Queue: 2 jobs
Job 1
Amino acid sequence: MPDFDADKVAHIHRELHSHLPSESALRIKALETLLVEKGLVNPQTIDAWVQAYSEEIGPKRGAHVVARAWSDPEYKKRLLADAPAAIDELGYLGKATAHLKVVENTPAVHNLVVCTLCSCYPFSILGIAPAWYKAAAYRARAVRDPRGVLAEFGVELDADVEVRVWDSTAELRYLVLPQRPRGSDDLDEDALAALVTRNSMIGTQRDLGAKRRG
Amino acid sequence: MDGIHDLGGKQGFGPVDVDDGEQPFHADWEGREWGIAQCARTPGITIDWWRHCRELILPVDYLSRPYFDSWAQTDFATYIEAGWITLAEVDAGRSLDPVEARPEPPAAMTLEQVLEEDRAHAYRFDAQIDTPPKFEIGQAVRTMAHGHAGHTRLPQYARNQVGVISAQHGAHVFPDLSAQGREIHQHCYSVAFDAAELWPEAKGSRDKVFLDLWEAYLGEA
């Protein structure tokens, strides 16, 4: 059991400040080496986690959820009412999504998700968070200057569109349901999913349609 | 704690670097740290204690080290605290246990097992409690004016502010005590704040900021 002793951990951090190797890659190498030599970790299991989040778990899952919601009004109702159960229908319930909430963009509302206190993210449907989501500039500014941040992502909002920023301060996690692009009526679920970008599900992209991923 | 991690509303960081590409990991070490964090957890650790250990990183390190690097430093600290490794071993860069005393590593997990484990990580933090919620949807509430030295999830920018309850989420594990190893459930709400009230430069704005807050952070407005 941990001692939950903050003073002790603060002291350890001060020690680590001067004891750890000088580069990120060397620090993580040292950590893995120690854990493997101590018999605490199998490096092949680390390989498997990297593979899982490189190939299997990522924004394509969220895109599938969004495309299903666009094509199936009953699914959309279930998704908005009980997102964990709805993503579980597609096999995507997992890390950090047991308290998922889906927030819907409309012509009058734009949603934007941030975690100002750490970098909480719905891993099992969006994978690893983009670097900007974890960076100080985004965490600091998304709650205070969301329109300025959105402009940097190329999103220009009319003044009468209400911005709703969701700061993930508890264990709830948020997924933005973007608006279905105009002219997509003929597309099937797979073709629709191909239009959905990672950024649109965080809220840093609003209009979909162009085949731009990101 | 009023630490460097509490970044909401802080100014001076400049524009967001929006060009991230799509790759989940930008270097091998990022993936290694992701994997380590998934499969090496000290017994009895709580997510809130782990978060607090990250908040306790020296401000200069917190701001200057990449995200997964700060995870690694948090892991180092929690492993040292739990007695898994020692500072002397960090200095040496290797285990100081005699070679013959070293245990075998755990069995390797396959991709399929890891995917199953990810599903199992859909942890729920809510529970039924006997106490009914104090606040109802639509009710105005005022947040506490001050935090405390430990882990808390009421950011500084949302303190002593009036907001409106927009959703009730039932009782969730209260992070301030979970970071001290105590699992107490308390009602948690989404609270909507007017940007115009939070920020001097947002006068006249209709925009809103929503936070998920526990009852202990809230009083009647």
Job 2
Amino acid sequence: MSSKQQKTRPVRNACRIGTPRIGRRELLTAGAGAALTPFLPILNSRAQANGAPKRFLFCFLDNGTIHSEWKPQGTETNFTFKRILAPLEAHKQDLLVLSGLDLVPEPAPPHSGHPQLLSNVAADLTRFRLSPGITLDQFIANQRKDMTRFGTLELGIVPFGGDDFYTRELLFRGPYEPVPCEPSPYAAFDRIFGARDDATALRLGTKRKSIFNGVSKDLAQLRAELGVEDQALLDRHAESLVELERRFTQGQAACAGPNMGTEQLDFRSMANYQEMAELQTDLMVAALACDATRIGSLVWSGPTSTQTFPWLGDFGNNHHLLSHDPGATEQLIKIGIWYSEQHARLIDKLKAVPEPGGGTLFDSTLILFANPLSDGNAHRKVDLPLILAGGKWHFRTGRYLNFGSTPHGHLLVSIAHAMGVEVDAFGNPETGTGPLSGLEV
Amino acid sequence: MGLRIPSLIVPDLGTWGHSYVELNMRVVAGSPQPLSRRSSTARDRVGALLTGLLLAGVLAGCDAQTNGAGSAGASAGGSATTGVVPGAGGSGTEMTSCTGAVSVAPSPLRRFTHAEYDHAVRALLGTQLELARDFPLDLPAAGFASNRSDPLSLLGVEKLLLAAEALAADAVTRLESLVPCAPAQGDAACARQFFSELSRQAYRRRPSASELEELAQLYAWGESNEGFSLGIQVVIERILQSPHFIYHLERTSGTPVAAQAGADAVAPLTGPSIADRLAAFIWHSIPDATLLDAAERGELDTPAGIAAQAERMLLEPKGRDGVVEFFNQWLDIEKLSITEKNAAVYPTYSDAVRSAMWNETTSFVDFVVREGDARLETLLTSNLALPSAPLAALYGLPPAETLTPMDPLVRSGLLTHPSVLAVHAHADQSSPVKRGAFIRERVMCTPLPDPPPAVNDTPPMINPNATTRERFHQHRADPACASCHSLIDPVGFAFEGYDGMGVHRMLEGNLPIDTTGELLGSDDIDGPFAGAVELTQRFARSQQVRDCMATQWLRYAMRREEGEADACSQQTVRAAFRETGDLRKLVLAIVQSDAFRFKSSKGAP
């Protein structure tokens, strides 16, 4: 599918080199070739003792950080957190704190790093800073074909702000195909846990299925009238119908969603950010716990977040403007601390969910906390503040590692390996092959 | 309730001639009406104007040729105009000969934008629900929401499903006003009549027998489960999810117009496809029965027939939607809803204020374009404002609910509206760069490159001992910045007489504000100016600005950037607008252009 899509999409610049070289088709058709052989054994060798599936969660923050309070002090195994990461102290032994990883090449314009963060392909500046590649979450989902109700689940927390219309897309399922996030926890609840029982779910599914049948026929019929580029658009539409139909006929997950509160708040309002953050986090944990999905993204803001934090103090400006104010270091540290508290809460929640086969949900989850900028004011895209949490079946955690100046693409390869997807490189092959050294158990 | 006549304050405008009296009189001349109603007088007057335009055959250039190719399938012969287009190098006009075959750039498939979807379901079902804001973002093209060549995401398809279900559930609460029978007596025949008509309007063509059969089966399934109402509900869900509804499916008729070797195939659009483009352009919606009937009768096969419908549509109440949406997107005031201000600096900025700002600008443009003199000059220089209660303090006037003249030394046209000034500013200060770049790109069509990679684009810190203008000194001092900022900043500085939310000011702190400057790099309006009012006067007289406006409207109509192959259409449209500066005439010129009436397909089967 994806290789056909790549051929038919209009391509307007040289960034195509960034498309992952090892696609699904190659893996499946490589036969006795090198790609397939190591694949299954590795999957097996890294299966969980408790039989739980592996999960990957991507958490996105923007506007950079304050390195002096973010970077731990000390050595690889003997280090202390400074102010920003202090709230994660209780989980220190479950973390890999990473320094010295760079976006390569460092993207040129100020707000263009976010599509590169998980795709390792520079944004296409001529096309709304969309990515001509695929992001790692989508790639892993494609490779694993878990057949969960949601192949991937993207939840956004008031992801509207941002002062540039063109800098809002973060995740891509293929070249120039953004994967938008669900901004409403209430809509997310209905989509994930909506039907109260199987009978209701199946009845709704039957109706939707007969409507989809007709819509699919319409699409097939129209396809014959159109040129190849337009056909590709309808093909994507038809594929989505198949995917949705599969979800609807799978019935309802056998577990309840989180408590959504009694009052429905305006999910677009920055004033409700704390409540929306809590709800979306709880929904993500519940969705993973119910095995509604195994690959999720929690998008803590749109790129160039303009969120305000009145509960932290009278900061005057919003997050983006503060990140450009050299005099606002203290405010930015406080914002960083608050986000670390939320990250700690997420980990707490995952650790509170027992797995049927023993252990907790956290034991089978790998989280990447990432930011496309280090120094927000200067738009520096090197020495990014990155943290891996969990994934202990693959990674030796409880360490602080500084890679000097290494392309961050290697980290994406490491994550792919942890999730059982063997690739030599991800995204732009010119940033080198292989995983980061020294991460693994 | 009538509009107050603008006061006759006559500023001395020196060399730039046009007095406010003259400009404002044009607005007033069109028998002012309350904003909420149009009188037949106004309508007749506009109608007469438009008819006059048609009779006069204002359109020059390619039109002589495209008239000939109007009937479906006729080949477009080689007649042409090779007019010399003067000046306008900076706005990108190329000398183009309109000889030879019809040439238009490709228009890849696109689907409804948010606004189109909401307007379309309102037209179909009479709903008040606006659900499209929950859909994934529209993809812009050339500055306007377009969704061209943009694949629907999985979430997008699911949101369409959920919206269809919510709209159908909402619609059947008003069943008696929707179906052509008493709902209690509803039967299969009544249902069939209902969904035949609904699908015709939704698909912008007559449904086929097999389509009606499928709808009948869905109705029967729903009816057998929970009766007539559910049968209707399921049918509505089906129609709203059809690609025939969601996409703008543009069909061509007849033999493709012979193209030069290697060029893309170009053919005239069918009547229903022209109807679809007209409705998307002028109403931001779908065609009504009148328009579809006209298409079926072949009336949209000629430029004159298209213009007649366009003229009618512009004056229908729905015409407001198309006009408002142009300015909403062109001026970026759609971003007001996400434009936050620093409460310490702008304590009076509130939801009520920003929504009043938006209402002011949209009421003004609708009045000028559809009821007033429709002149670009009026839009750019009129001192009419709508100081409704939330804005009264901003203007320092008693509240009024009608367009009211302001001090012409302070307010001069759209670019001095608080909505525009507030959007193109920072949260805690004005922004000469944002304002200047916006005007350069959107009003003058000056292409601006991205800033250099390593640039620090942070506005200089607020400093009580320096004005904003002084703080931006770096742009002139650093040669790397100066090449672009010498174009941008003087334009922005002219608007320093308005703070970050558009309030007029003479001082910044205790420091006097300097709004003088020199305009550089234009085609026809370079030179020193004294401030925003004089600058907007100059824009109003500029051919470059007129050409730019024509281009912006063409982009809006086509929902795409113009390509090289559109040069002839662009030239024709510009020529028509240059003569009159009349936006209603511009709309008519656009719908008769080749770009609007023909379609070019890459790789068609």
